[in-house]
Amino acid sequence: METISNERDANAQRVRNAWLSAPQKHLGVKGLMALLCVANLLVPFSVDIYTPSLPDMPAYFGTSESTVSLTLALFYLTFAVSLLVFGTMSDSFGRKSVLVSGNLVYIVGSVACAFSSSIGFLIAARIVQAIGAGAVYAVATALVSDCFTKERRGFVLTIMQVLFVIGPIVAPLAGGAIILFGTWREVFAVLAVLGLICLAGSFLFTDNRHPKKAPSASSVSTLVGLASVLRNPRFLLVLLVMSLFNMAFMAYVAAGAYIYVGTFGQTQQLFTCFFAGTAAVSALGPIAFQKFCRGIDPTKFSFFLIILSLASGIAMLAVGDSSVWVFTALCVVLCASTMTIRPYTIGIMLHMNENRAGAASSVLNFVSTALGAAGMIVVTLFDDFVSGFAIIIVFSTAVSLILWSAFRFMDRQQER
Fold this sequence. Notes:
Blueprint: H1 2-19, H2 28-48, H3 57-61, H4 65-93, H5 95-114, H6 119-147, H7 150-181, H8 184-204, H9 218-230, H10 233-263, H11 268-292, H12 298-319, H13 324-352, H14 357-379, H15 385-415
């Protein structure tokens, strides 16, 4: 019996070694994956879970809809700025300290939201909440580089990417279920509980890195880290490709309801079904690539996906408004390509900056979020949402094709 037990322990150790680049005494592989999953759900849940409550809030606070919308807009803006700061700070202070602090700030912000007595207080609490969410999300991305072996990073990033798409779908459904039995205050209480779960995992996390700078030098280290990452032209090329795809994807998220309900005359319930179906089918893209396409050069495959997405944008311009099924099929091409390219490009960027994974995480998340926000704004400027969405797809993929070609050329030059 003792021999069997020893063999099991040895097998378990081999599994851990295959996944983790450094041991996690308390969390292990599954615990660390769970922590990253919860950390990646904080943002989509924070943005989308209380959207079903928004129509009732202007009357509750005695204010306008535009003022209430600031609870979303300022959260997103603050979150983007936080991404730029806290990932790089974790290179100086250590991942765990920033992760724990970020969770504490997030919980405080969530509780403050739940007890808000005025719209001004709620907006301020949402800003606090966004600061914490930005710190947690930035560190979570850096942990993929720190903790997992190079062979497993692609799979972990794929899971995170799937959550990135599924989160905005599940969150409003969860918010709608909560307000059936409570109010918008209970929604923020649930977010506080989600933060507590993430905090518990953060305390159990073992940080095997050692900060490179003393805390007193952290502000200088932050600037040096960002400058070091941005000086790499190959990093910038990959960053822009990933971010341009996110621009097109977020334009779809912003305009989807208007297109399905306004252009094609679908009900809100059917829009939810189309949106969820597109996300579910698209999620199979990166999973299938990880499982069945290991022998294919991912750089060449990404080039193919960029061309395919460009073709879908051109087709969207020509026949996108002809049928709801044609539109959905073309959206699946874009979304599946985005979800397949994103984890691969993030993996490239983290590998380029293994010694400054926090700074790389800050930059890539900030730029991706900023261009995603730009896509959401630009698509609403068009009278015809289908044409506007198609133009954004063509622009983002055409530019990506040029940038990716330049990246491949630089790679070949470097190999010589």
